[in-house]
Amino acid sequence: MNRSTVVGLATVLFKSYFRASRFGRRSRLSNPAILVSLDIVLFAAPFALLSFLLPLLPPETMSLVRPLAVQSLIVLPVILTSAVTLAGILFELGQTSGVASSEAVNWLPVSPGEYVVASSVSVLFTYSPLLFISLGVTIPLALSVGMLSVVPFFILISTLAYIWGAVIVEALRSVMNRISTTLYKKSGRLGVILRIVLVIVLLVAVQTAFNPYILYTALSGIVEGVNLAWFVPVIWPSVAVVSFLTLDVTRATIFATLSLLFTFLIFEAATRLRARYWSPVPVTITLSTSTVYVPQGKSFLWLDPVAFAVASKELRSLARRKEMARFLAIPVLLVVSSLLPVLTSGAAPRNVLSGMSLMLLAETSLILPLMLSSISIGQEGSSIANIYMLPISAEELILGKLFLPWIFSGVGILAVALFMQFLAPVAAGQFLATLVAVAFNMIVQGYVGLGTGSRHPSFNVGPRARYLSFAGFIIVFVIGGLATVTILTPLILYEGTGILTGLGGGPAGSVLLTIILTAAVGTFLLMLARYYCMQGVKKLLSSMEA
Amino acid sequence: MRAICEFRDKPARCSEKDEVDIYRSGDEGLRRSMDGIMLESVTKSFGDNVAVKDLTLSVLPGEVHGLLGPNGSGKSTTMKMVMSIVKPDYGKISLCGIDVLRQPIEAKRLVGYVPESPYLYDYLTASEYLDFVGTAYGIDLKTRREKVDELLKALQMSEHVNEVMSGFSQGMKQKIAITAALLHRPRALVLDEALNGLDPRSAKIVKDVLQRLAGEGVSILFSTHVLEIAEAMCSRITIMNEGSIIAEGTVQELRSKAGMPGSTLEDTFLKLTGSEDTEKIVEALKL
């Protein structure tokens, strides 16, 4: 193994990761020296702060610190492995093919082993802040309760577990590429759909796993079950730490050795997989068995043929690009993460669920259309040139671009509304007033999102691309948030404070008044938002940045 | 005469057949009134970098006009301005009598464009992309099917029509971009290194198609770095350097301007752009 090849390749992969990210070429983190400095700060700051604060705590609170320190020492190795693996998988799912990878290695004299080591090192470097901040928090906790002797062993084991994550990612990358290629080649359109569903499920599962409530429950389970699940390799570093803490040196040595051997095993597996699936197989995806060309293109609902063609293109973009899957996963995630703690904590009171219903609907009608519309310009990437060179007017572009955000949001809102109505039914009038408010909100947010997305697009299609500049991200959520609060004000006054309840001559009248007020505010904001959107799109179409 | 009157009133609505009739009528006055591509005193800067300086250029109907120049000379920016993709700082641009700055959508309906890099939607199949383009140009389904089938067959792409374009080679993408540009039978064509990556057979077909279209009165602005192609195809050539025109005319006229009668276009080009020291550079390279 050539050391200079490994170092050179690791540097290329590490830099390309950051430079292809949303920060672009300006990312200072692509400088290893800056990242190392950041790591030192991330370790030293919590270490110094906790070392200073913990001795100041009253002695009786130390009884709470001790179990916390023990739990941290035990679970950190597992967390590090899982976090790096998950981050690596998410990176792989989010990356646009070709970006951040060095294709040149396929024809340069680089062995699979050298590649695996270099790529693992680059992953380790990339996520190193995670390791350093974790150690910076856990070590002072351990020191404060007199566990000095375990600290060196703990650092060693945690670092080993951290390395596991990077090597596992390498093995999974080869497997995932192979599966993806096979799936595509064998099943065409079905493969495309299957992949998008799998990606959404994976993203929701990963994000749910990191939900604080779920995480707390799971970690408690790990601490309690670490000795029971000793045969699971991922647990071995934690078993070694537990054994060390209980002064069982033999067991600690065995599991530390097993952990080390496992590192070599997964490295060997990753190298063999890389050797087998060395060069990515070029994929040709045919979406129809027939070679007969059947032209499409017609009017649909309120869309003329050009706007419908734009909308169809957007749908294909959303369904076929794996990096777009996360935008589809967000609404599912939103509902799951909000409902999970309530549903798993026993019978929730009806008024809690009713309040949550409004909150969920407000969230869905804000985030879903806002997010999908604000990214719709940036996600075009360099292909935005097509929009400039074709005779597509601003009106057609707006209608085409907003069709999907509105349709998806409408379906999402309806699904959430019906689900919550099933869980905690409210009167028909109140339900209708809520639907009117969120429908207005959804339309307004679509215009706000596209208006901002066209003013502040980010055409960087690299890993974890946001398709919206940072300024645009702030602007869109400030304007969107204000619009949501304004549109929902009549409903909040009616449901939350009861101010409107006494007006309008009875319950039916007050609901009607709420609907009328909502419609008036909504119409006014809709006109404003449409103007904002139109001006943004016209400005965008006036001249392409060279 | 009906066609001529309609053409004078609304050039964008003049049919393909009417336009060919006007062109073939031999009436030079009418032919010129069809305008082609006109740029008048066009300037474009990007920050401190003046990409195009006070450029005046005309591409008459039926003319294949070559736009040559070293990298960064302003060719692509000029073409993007013609397409109203990039807005000039000063100057006037018209396409078939339509002011591209005031009526960009109308102008785009009349022109076909092949950019330097074919920025296609990689996640669409070739047929889906061509459908999208055809719909944007307002071509009806029947015509679209006929044109797409005809063009893809000619360029040997019929078998790939239902494939997602992410798997396409550079040449295949270029063929799709050319098909998209020709789909609506444009009255003007702006081709930025359009033959790049094409196999010899397809390149020959495209060159012949362009000559035929020019014969029917289509104005073609064509940039290339392959000077043999420019010499063979272009009726007039403009050479740009650092954003300005340094020479313009037929190949013969350019040779005379360079004081190199009988030389190749390559030698003429190198002389005019002041880059004739290539031999010394090669000799100095220690490879």
Sum up the overall morphology of chain B in one term. globular
Secondary-structure element pattern of chain B, one letter each: HHHEEEHEEHEHHHEHEHEEHHH
Count of helix runs of chain A? 17
| Strand-residue proportion of chain B | 15-25%
Helix-strand sequence of chain A: HHHHHHHHHHHHHHHHH
Overall structural class of chain B, as computed from helix and strand content, comes to alpha/beta
CATH domain topology of chain B: Rossmann fold
Distance between the termini of chain B: 68 Å
Determine the number of helices of chain B (DSSP H or I, runs of at least 4 residues). 13
Q: Are there runs of chain A of 5+ residues with pLDDT below 50, and where?
A: none
The proportion of strand residues of chain A reads under 5%
Largest beta sheet: strand ordering of chain B: 6-7-8-3-9-10
**CATH-wise, what's the superfamily of chain B?**
P-loop containing nucleotide triphosphate hydrolases
- Give the proportion of residues in helices of chain A: over 70%
Unreliable runs of chain B, pLDDT <50, ≥5 residues?
A: 1-13
Number of E-type strands of chain A:
0
Structural class of chain A: mainly alpha
Question: How is the biggest beta sheet of chain A arranged?
Answer: none
Would you kindly provide a brief summary of this structure?
Chain A has 546 residues and is an all-alpha fold. Chain A has helices at residues 3-19, 32-53, 62-94, 112-126, 128-144, 150-209, 212-225, 236-245, 249-276, 305-320, 325-344, 350-374, 384-389, 394-423, 428-455, 470-497, 507-542.
Write up what this structure looks like:
The complex is a heterodimer of chains A (546) and B (287). Chain A has two domains: 3-276, no CATH class; 305-542, no CATH class. Chain A is built from 17 helices and no strands. Chain A has helices at residues 3-19, 32-53, 62-94, 112-126, 128-144, 150-209, 212-225, 236-245, 249-276, 305-320, 325-344, 350-374, 384-389, 394-423, 428-455, 470-497, 507-542. The two termini of chain A are 44 Å apart. With 287 residues, chain B is of the alpha/beta class. Chain B has one domain (35-249): Rossmann fold, CATH 3.40.50. Helices cover 43% and strands 21% of the residues of chain B. Chain B has helices at 2-9, 16-24, 28-33, 75-82, 104-110, 126-136, 141-154, 170-182, 200-215, 227-233, 251-258, 265-272, 278-284, and strands at 37-46, 49-59, 64-68, 90-95, 98-99, 111-114, 188-192, 219-223, 236-241, 244-249. A six-stranded mixed β-sheet of chain B has the order 6-7-8-3-9-10, sandwiched between helices. In chain B, helix 11 crosses helix 12. The relative contact order of chain B is 0.14. Chains A and B meet through helix 10 and helix 13 of A and helix 5, helix 6 and helix 7 of B.
